[in-house]
Design a protein that fits this description.
Layout (H helix, E strand, L loop, with lengths): L4 H12 L5 H8 L3 H13 L19 E9 L4 H12 L4 E6 L7 E7 L2 H12 L5 E8 L17
């Protein structure tokens, strides 16, 4: 899908405020509401906009400990990886699971929990019990320096 400046502006604005009204969105990009809405629908149907979400405050929810976990697998087979990925997808504390290269690990997980006790329970009772997990290395997040959800959308490009 070829994006013009209006499409890029729409994507930038919606990433910052997914609840903006179509009228306000149209006003901000300099289009009338009908063509603006057609463009938003086309971006949705084209798969560029895949959903709308509320961003929550983890600390306000009592989730004060974030960790990055590097997981090593015992076998590098599609079946082993698929089974691991299916198991990890069912753990609510896992915010992100990335298959990675360039490390001794195969996966990097980003998890959030209440405290160190909750982390220990998550690790020992749920993650290390997944068949194929042969190594775990954890780093605890001290502070989020950059925490974005928006993808860069150069309006002029």
């Amino acid at each position: 899908m070829e994006l013009d400046r209006y499409d890029r502006q729409i994507l930038n604005i919606l990433q910052a405020d997914g609840r903006i009204s179509n009228q306000e969105l149209a006003d901000r990009i300099g289009l009338s509401p009908s063509p603006c809405l057609r463009r938003v629908r086309a971006l949705e149907e084209g798969g560029l906009i895949v959903g709308y979400r509320a961003l929550l405050d983890a600390k306000a929810l009592g989730l004060t400990l974030m960790a990055l976990i590097h997981i090593s697998m015992d076998q590098h087979t599609p079946e082993r990886f698929s089974a691991f990925e299916a198991a990890i997808a069912g753990i609510p504390e896992v915010l992100e699971c990335l298959l990675i290269t360039g490390q001794a690990a195969d996966y990097q997980l980003k998890v959030v929990v209440k405290d160190l006790d909750a982390y220990q329970e998550l690790l020992l009772k749920r993650i290390t019990g997944i068949p194929g997990v042969s190594g775990v290395h954890t780093s605890f997040v001290l502070r989020r320096v950059v925490d974005k959800t928006a993808f860069p959308m150069g309006v002029g490009s």
